[in-house]
């Protein structure tokens, strides 16, 4: 069983670049129902990755926590069941 949750990010605002505090994450595009296929992205050693569906550039920001983005507000928070 995984010991951490992979964060999911969305880009409703359509910004060209989002700085995130993790190197492995899911991009969903916009908030459902306007999302694209949820794709796992891994920056590896590069420190940045472009989503192949929505073309958002994600850059790693080592000063950010896993639940932070710059600009803020792009983390999808799971709703309690």
Structure overview:
With 81 residues, the chain is mainly β. It has strands at residues 8-9, 17-20, 24-29, 35-42, 48-50, 57-60, 69-70, 75-76. The strands form two sheets. Strands 4-3-1-8 form a four-stranded mixed beta sheet, with no helix packed on it. It has a four-stranded mixed beta sheet with strand order 5-6-2-7, with no helix packed on it. The protein has no helices and eight strands. Strand 3 and strand 4 form a beta hairpin. The chain is globular and about 30 Å long. 20% of the residues are buried. Helix content is 0%, strand content 38%. The model has no long low-confidence stretch (mean pLDDT 92). It starts with 7 loop residues before the first strand and ends in a 5-residue tail after the last strand.
SSE order and pairing:
Blueprint: E1 8-9, E2 17-20, E3 24-29, E4 35-42, E5 48-50, E6 57-60, E7 69-70, E8 75-76
Please work out how many helical segments DSSP would assign. 0
> What is the CA-atom radius of gyration, in angstroms?
12 Å
What class do helices, strands and sheet pairing give?
A: mainly beta
Overall pLDDT metric: 92
Low-pLDDT stretches: none
User: CA-to-CA gap between the ends?
Assistant: 20 Å
Q: How much of the polypeptide forms β-strand, as a percent range?
A: 35-45%
Q: Could you tell me the number of beta strands?
A: 8
| Sheet having the most strands | 4 strands, mixed
């Amino acid at each position: 069983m995984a010991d951490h949750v992979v964060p999911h990010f969305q880009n409703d605002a359509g910004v060209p670049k989002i700085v995130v505090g993790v190197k492995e994450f899911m991009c969903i595009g916009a908030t459902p129902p306007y999302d694209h296929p949820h794709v796992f992205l891994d920056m590896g050693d590069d420190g940045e990755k472009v989503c192949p569906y929505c073309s958002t550039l994600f850059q790693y920001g080592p000063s950010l926590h896993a639940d932070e983005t710059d600009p803020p507000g792009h983390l999808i928070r799971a709703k309690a069941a």
